[in-house]
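# step 3/5: fold
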Amino acid sequence: MTSTSEDKQLPPQRTAKYETLPLNRGKRRALLDLMRASTRIKDSLLRMRGRTSAWHHLDDPRVLRTAAKDQPLEGVSVHLQDQALWDVVDTMRRRTQSAIANTHLRAKGFMQFDGAKRHYAFWIVPHARTGRHGA
């Protein structure tokens, strides 16, 4: 009898979970400071780049990255600023795609329904995505 590739199955892969010791105060403080800095950077970048006048930067994030590196933030590593910038570009793209999808759904509802049915369709679209029901 010959063996085939079907006979030789690989064992299922398992996720390795490593436990860590509790952080000491210094490491915990350093980690919290890093998270706060990341949040602060993302928030400021979203405020600057979230305006519609800055959306053209989303087409070429490398230009945006170069512009951001010209104005480094004090007390923040360049790597952290760079990662936050990529996250901001991704967030802005997702927001834009979500707005387009929502507008597409509303246009379909507008064409398909009229009167009270249209009113209900416009009410249900945002609630269907968030899972909220009721008034």
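# step 4/5: annotate
Residues 27-130 form one domain.
# step 5/5: archive (pending)
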